[in-house]
Amino acid sequence: MAKKTIHIMNTAFRDGFQSVYGARVLTEDFLPAVKACVEAGQTHFEAGGGARFQAPFFYCNESAFDMMDKFREAAGPDADLQTLARGINVVGLDSQSRDMIDLHAKMFKKHGITTIRNFDALNDFNNLIDSGKSITNHGLNHEVCVTMMELPPGCEGAHTVEFYQKTLQDILDAGIPFTSVCFKDASGTSAPKKVYETIAMARKLLPGDCKIVFHSHETAGVGTVGYLAAIKAGADQVDCSMAPASGGTCQPDVATLWHALRGEDYELDIDIDKMMHAETVFKDCMADYMLPPEAKAVEPMIPWSPMPGGALTANTQMMRDNNMMDKYEDCIHAMGEVVRRGGFGTSVTPVSQFYFQQAFNNVIFGPWEKIAEGYGKMVLGYFGKTPVAPDPEIVKIAAEKLELEPTTANPVDLNDADPKKGIEPAKAMLKENNLEETEENIFIAGACKQKGIDFLLGKMEINGVRKGALTPAAPAAAASAGGDGGYTVTVNGKKFAIDVKGDKATVNGKSYDIGVEDGIETSGTATVAHESADSVEVAAPMNAKVIKVLVNVGDHVNEGDVLFIVEAMKMEVEVKAAAGGTISSIAAEAGAQVTAGEAMASIN
Predict the structure, then answer these.
(1) What is d(CA 241, CA 197) in angstroms, rounded to the nearest whole number?
(2) pTM of the shown model
(3) Which domains does the chain have, with CATH numbers?
(4) pLDDT digits (tens, 9 = 90+) for 571-580
(5) Phi (first) and psi of residue 295, to 5 degrees
C-alpha cells in the first residue's frame, strides 16, 4: 500500500521569526536560507503578513512590501508564497473599513503573494466575508481558518468539536469563497484527541478534494502529537519550521515530524537530507541574533493561560525593551482570569494581544483598574461576537472606563462610518506630511498610523533588533571618566551602553550629537525643578517610551489634562496632571524611555 504524502509549508521565515525574534529580522540576513530551501526542493513558504507586516516598519526600518518583493525574487516565480491575515483586522491590531480590507488583498497580490491564510480570532464568520471576497477577487488563493485552542481547565462553553463544526458550517452557509481550510491553533494547546475528532469532522463535512491544513506550535509540548493526530484524521498539510526557529514557541521542526512519521503510512514531501543542509544555512544566517530562552522551552502553564508562541516572544521582547521582564510570570498567571471573563475568543492575534495587555494592566495597575482598549472593545462587541457572552461585570467596567456602550452592530459597518478609518483619512495623513500618494503609502499609513508616516518620512531607525552586530562592542581598554571610550551608565536601575567618540555618542546602538562642558548649567536643563514645597511631580506610570509631549514649560494646566502620551506593550497610555497649575519643568522628551515612577514634569 502506497504511503500518503503529507504536504509541508515552511513557516520559518514568518511565524518562526515572529515566534522567536518578535518578528524583528532584517531581510538580507535570511534570504540565503530561503534560497537554500528552494535548492532543497521546497516550493511553499509563509512569506509575510501577521506581525511580519508592521514589525519591519516599526523595528527594522524596512518596508514589508520591499521584503515581500525580495522574498519572491529569492524563491522564484513558481513558489507558492503565503501570508497571514486577521480577517477585518488584516495585518494590524485594529479593525479596518472595507476599502482598506480590499486594498490589503490588492497590494499583497501586487507584491508577489499567491495565497492568504485568513482567520478571525472570535470565529465570527461575518468577519471573514468581506476579506474572503477581496482575496478571491484579486486572484489570490483564500485559505479560510477555524481558530482553535483549549480552554483553561474548569472552563466550558466553546472550543469543542461541535463548536468548530458550527463555525465551519457557518462559513459554508455564508458562501465565503475559499480554496483550502486551515484549523489554526496558535497556542498549541488543543488536546490531540480533539484535534483528531475535529479534522475527521471536517473531512466528512468538506468536499473530498478540499485541502485541509492543521497548524500548531510546540509551546505546550503537544504540537507534534497534534500533527500526528491531524494527519491520521485526514489532514493534507501541516506547517513545519526549521531550527533555530522551530520547537518551543514555534512550529515543530521539519526533522522532528519526519522522524515521528518513520514506520507510519505517511511521508512528507521533502528530501530530508537536503532540508537538513538548508537548516544549517538558516542557523548560520541567524547566528548573530539573540535567541530568547523562552522561545525554545515548553511552558507548562500555557494550558492555564493560552498564550500563542508568536505573541509570547513578541511580548517578552517588548518587556525587555521596557525593562519589565520581572513582571512576565505575573502577567502569564493573570491571563487565565482575563481569558475566562472575556468571552473565549481564540488566543491568537489580535485577541491574544488583547488578553496579554489586559493581564499586564491588571498586574501593573491593579485588577480591572485600567481596561486595555482592545480588550475593552472586544468584550463590548466592537470586533464582532465572542464565542460566549463575556462576564457582565467586565462588560460594565469596560463601558465605564472606555466611555463606550456595548454594540451588536457589524464592526465593518462601524468602521466604514468612522471618519478616522479608511483610505481617505490615510490619504489625508500623507498629504499633511507632503508624502507621495501611492497605494503602498496609503496602506502603510492606514495600517501603521503615525509609525508608518514616520517610516515614510525617514524618521525611523533600526531598534529592538537583537542582533550582535547592532550592539556596541565593549572597548579594548577602559576609558577615563569624561573622555572617549565605552561606558555602562545605570539610570534608575536601567543600563545604557554608551560609546563616546568626540562629539558623537552611541547609546544602545543609536547615535547622538553631544557636547560636554565642565560644570552644570542650570538654565534649560531637563531636570525636574521643585520651586516650592507645593510642587507636584508628574511621574511615569510604567516603563515606557514617550510618544508625545503635549505641554511646554509655562503652560497652565488643569487637573486631568493630558501632558504626555507614552507607549508600552503596543498600548498608548495618557499621563495626566494630578493637579492644576503651571508647568514649571519638563524632564521627558519624545522618543525617550522612562522608568516607572521617574519624574517627567513638575507643576507649581
Answers:
(1) 25
(2) 0.82
(3) 4-296 (3.20.20.70), 302-415 (1.10.472.90), 536-603 (2.40.50.100)
(4) 677 888 888 8
(5) -70, -20
